[in-house]
Amino acid sequence: MLRVAVTGATGFVGSHVIRRLIAAGHQVRILARRMPITALTPDRPLEVVLGDLDDEPALHRLVGGVDVVIHVAGVIKARHAAVFHKVNVEGTRHLATALSNASPDLRVIHVSSLAAREPSLSPYCASKRGGEEAIQALANPARLTILRPPAVYGPGDTEIYPMFKAAALGICAYPAAPQGRVSLIHGADLAAAIVAAAETILPDPVYELDDGHAGGYAWTEIGAGLSAALARPVRMIRVPRPVLTAIALGVEAHRRVAGSLTALSLAKVPELYHADWVARGPRLEARTGWKPAFDVTRGFADTLAWYRAIGWLR
Length: 314
Hints:
InterPro entries: Epimerase_deHydtase, KR_dom, NAD(P)-bd_dom_sf, NAD(P)-dependent_oxidoreduct, SDR_fam. This is NAD-dependent epimerase/dehydratase family protein. By secondary structure, the chain is α/β, with parallel strands linked by helices. It is built from eleven helices and 14 strands. A seven-stranded parallel sheet has the order 3-2-1-4-5-6-11. Helix 2 (about 55-65) packs across helix 3, helix 3 runs parallel beside helix 4 (about 125-135) and helix 7 packs across helix 11 (about 295-310).
């Protein structure tokens, strides 16, 4: 049994991680801005440290006396580039400082993103690379493992819901390079990979993750997975980059007026049309007992079942 501290535990990926940790019998301490009532149930005996990544005393309480720290917290959409930097880079730097003041024997799992490979594409990508560089300032970097997941989906995810909603009507408009390929991973599989990494001393500093589908998916394969899950044909329509750029301009204009927070922005467009979001490098499967359970067909079916169970889709 390990004593594990987790940041970002109340988010989509973090909630999967704490479920996996507790199921494995580990003691879990989480960092949260407010008491996470929905996460505190009889089957989830969590210790809660109230605070955030800017709260130095809270970070010291979080990491004190544990065996492993899993850093999941981060933002994937923001109104300004400065917000990405503040949370994904500076927040991680604050955590690294707290970790350096704790035991150098602490295992640290930093959950980054494939986006960190391409820091010049967008402020988000730059912030994910910056977060990796910040956490590498640990006193004992040999105890650090960086995990780079690709696009993550599954029960609890709201970002991919519009794609399922459109597919349920028989269409799926996707923004991508004509020959673009993308790796995917189900949230439960990512959580299992994170926990496996926390339980193992690993020889490589960085592992890129996927669902075991070598070479990633073409969008035609993603469409086939949607069709199989929905049991109906789904017409895939590629959106040319100039069209999405014009849409992004409109979204940004509306955002400035309404003050809303959206994933789509002009800065996001280069990410979406980058042709290679395929996981490569050392395989976590070869170093641990972890193996992904969901390919895109089973994973999409599982996600669709959740959307239907909560009443989002019929």
